[in-house]
Amino acid sequence: MRKGVTASAACLAALSLTAGVVPSASANTLAAPDKITIDVKTVNGSGCPAGTAAVAPSSDATAFTVTYSDYMAQAGGDSNPTDMRKNCQISMQINIPQGFTYAIASADYRGFAHLAKGASGMERANYYFQGMSQTTPKSHNINGPYSNNWQFTDRTDVAELVWKPCGEQRNLNVNTELRVNKGSSKETSFMSFDSTDGSIKTIYHISWKKC
Description:
Helices cover about 0% and strands about 50% of the residues. The chain contains no helices and 13 strands. The strands form two sheets. Strands 1, 3, 4, 5, 7, 10, 12 and 13 form an eight-stranded mixed β-sheet that branches. Strands 2-6-11-8-9 form a five-stranded antiparallel β-sheet, with no helix packed on it.
């Protein structure tokens, strides 16, 4: 059986932080704090109707997961034209201990795709802190014929991590998008952030520093 597609994107572009106190490049990288909590503020988009997306921190505070239950783009067959693109933006407040700050070091995006010959699918994502410039979206493509789980990973070099300004409470926004192009195929093709058994999650890995 063909294994899922994997890919690593080039590092996200470094952004200039103009507000708040930013940890210096010489700050020591720390082990994760004992615990973090996450408050989801808003969930918007055609890929995540109300009640279909959930966010949870890992027990060791080194990551958080996003699980979708109704996030699928499709094209061809009897699909509606608007079904070819789905997107979601989740805004969350990550509550961390005083004296710490964090950045997203990498993200693992997983799902399932069934793409007929001639069709193609695309996953695109980025993330940024409230009030700051968005990081450059990274895109990954799959060409049909393909019918299996998929996984893509975006990583950021340590020197180019975008840190939450110290002493400020800023929401983290995570954006995702799926697109399917039917191409020359007449069959229904789809790409989703779900797996066939519902066990696949998107994982965001966190780096920590002291303010």
